[in-house]
From TrEMBL:
GO annotation (BP), single: proteasome-mediated ubiquitin-dependent protein catabolic process
Stated name of the protein: Phospholipase A-2-activating protein
Pfam families: PFU, PUL, WD40
One Gene Ontology molecular-function label: ubiquitin binding
Spans of repeat WD: 14-45, 60-106, 145-175, 258-289
Cited InterPro entries: ARM-like, PFU, PFU_sf, PUL_dom, WD40/YVTN_repeat-like_dom_sf, WD40_repeat_CS, WD40_repeat_dom_sf, WD40_rpt
Amino acid sequence: MEIDFNEYQLRCELRGHEDDVRGICVCGNERIATSSRDKTVRLWSQDPSEKRKFVSSKILLGHTSFVGPIAWIPPNDEFTEGGVVSGGMDTLVLVWDLKSGEKVQTLKGHSLQVTSITLDNGDIVSSSVDCTLRRWRNGQSVETWEAHKAPIQAVIKLPSGELVTGSSDTTLKLWRGKTCLHTFNGHADTVRGLAVMAGLGVLSSSHDGWGFISEHTFKSNQYCIPALHQNNILCFTCFYWYSSLRLWAVSGQVLMEMVGHTAIVYSVDSHASGLIVSGSEDRFAKIWKDGVCVQSIEHPGCVWDAKFMENGDIVTACSDGVVRIWTVHPDNIADQLERDLYASELSQYKTSRKRVGGLKLEELPGLEALKIPGTSDGQTKVVREGDNGVAYAWNMPEQKWDKIGEVVDGPEESGRAFHDGVQYDYGQFPVVPLHSLLALSSSDSFLINFYFCGSVFDVDIGDGMPIRKLPYNRSDNPYDVADKWLLKENLPLSFREQIVQFILQNTGQKDVTFDASFRDPYTGANAYVPGQPSRTSDASAKPTFKHIPKKGMLGFDTAQFDGILKKITEFNSALQSDQEKQNLSLTELDVSRLGAIVKILKDTSHYHSSKFADADISLLLNLLRSWPISMIFPVIDLVRMIVLHPDGATMLHKHFQAENDILMEVIKKVTSNSSIPANLLTSIRTVTNLFKNSCYYGWLQKHRSEVLDAFSSCSSSPNKNLQLSYSTLILNYAVLLIESKDQEGQYQVLSAALEIAEEGNVEVDSKFRALVAVGSLMLEGLVKKAALDFDVLSIAKAAKASKEAKLAEIGSDIELVAKQS
């Protein structure tokens, strides 16, 4: 189908989702299905009264966490109006009948988030962060295989019948059945999206990374370094950040590379006309023709997905929760008012994201702030004038604010500066001449004026000398940066402390402690610096984190022993009065033995020497096996405390190691009958307490997947005690699996922790512990890249915006880890 390409314009907006829209599938000519972080799938149908618009016709509820991939089942004998298949963070693949809007199949098997879905001759094929592909037929898993050694992000079916997968390991793989026919190498980072390009091959989208060119025309995402080449000709090498699309032949040959996005490209799709569309974190959907970007459609948020409709219109899924359709057909273009409203929304979004001096433009005070006198000569103030931030300095002798100039900043938080081929943390932030801060000694005849440009300070040393560049990253030790720069520029070391203080003030680190000892950056030697104390340490400073990495295990170590005994006695009396269950009741010796157990547990001062008898442990285990499930929670609570006792833990451990594992037996029994919250609470806390004794580490790792799956429902429970217990279990597992370097386990724990962090109704302490698990896994584990793939930065930013101090602090920790190379 040919399209006479004209500029795409807004057709309509589909509003209804309450969070990011993550996935799109086009269901014929008149329907669209979308998935969202709000845990829903929505079906949108063409409005019969106004054909250019779509209205929400069905909301499909069934996932327990955010929904990502979604695929269409065309009408057939089973689904007369078609169906959709969706995959979620909850590890489930769900099949829906679009006629009824009902869930008809729940496909369980993946251990981590489902990332992509495709159909293959009636079969469903799904990919997951657990590194596997699964083939489902008639509601059953019929094939499973590890297709990559890292999370699989995408899977598609070729017209010839083969499957193609894309992975975080940077490769694509071509599959016939479970046999890999070819591995496509070429991308430099995670492959996020795949699509078929009819008649040509496979399209892929990626994070990729750095490239370089040698040209004299520079663009906004290019950063140039002068260098002397042969014949003393000054040339420029231009580095740029790119996220690319590639077109591959099925043989693995790269036919075309399309570069233009400046952040992660999450999706790619093609149309029979030859057009290609891509969606990116840079907020643009880009349209490509013959390898060239012919249009960039800006959005007020990340474009998670973009798909063509049969008529060439484009559907986009945005992080603002809105689905938008874009058209080149004049009859379908939105009216002028709708287009103006969208332009206004886009402008407001950009203004809200624009930062000046590290602050949001909209948060700056207006000109009225200049009516308040300054308190010291040279004091600076940035105010908002229209859409710009303008810096003023207080002139003490004349008692007025002198205008210095406009403050320039990157448009968003992600703007980062480059110097000597290195990318730095902050967006552009030229500040003001700092005459008052840099009170130099009388022997120094010049002033140094600083401007902060995206973590690259412009330094004006006066006397007509050229501007010097001083780069800085938040993870750097500012003393080391100042030392290296002063030596490089042949400037007096007496400027050192003044430079450092300015860096700290303007990077929000004035309360952070750094090692101030001098080390020659080229030789490592120490030197005398006037005004500085003598130091001998030469340890490099590391970034300072408030809450990570987590060390040690958490537990639940308090109990109401009298209440436990009272409840057991109450249940025992009920059994004695029931003729059919009298044989389950306790003997007098049993009651006495339980009293002795509690006495030992109460006497914590003698834990080092007190012992349990074999009969004590046998009694408890027998009650767990024989008593009705509604009565076992006080017994489980006693076991919870026994695992904290050195001797009790050792004796119980013997039973857990046997083939007939009583603890797993209880966990399965309790979680399959989750209508009794007390059972769930006592059992999850018992497992959590196992981490306090290293003899259980082997058991915990062996049963990790079973345990986490069994208790996963606790993450969304309305019971706050269950939420906190589950988050604590997740955090303990993170610590253990970091220590054991178990990457597969870390993936599962990361996925579970992120699910808690994204849950809207989780109480503060639970969310905090989940975020500590995420941050610790990123900092010291093996899954940082996977966390970034999961869009952990948006979770960190949400935490930073919290009014709860500790959530804001852990959000900052995670953001700092994410920015570390």
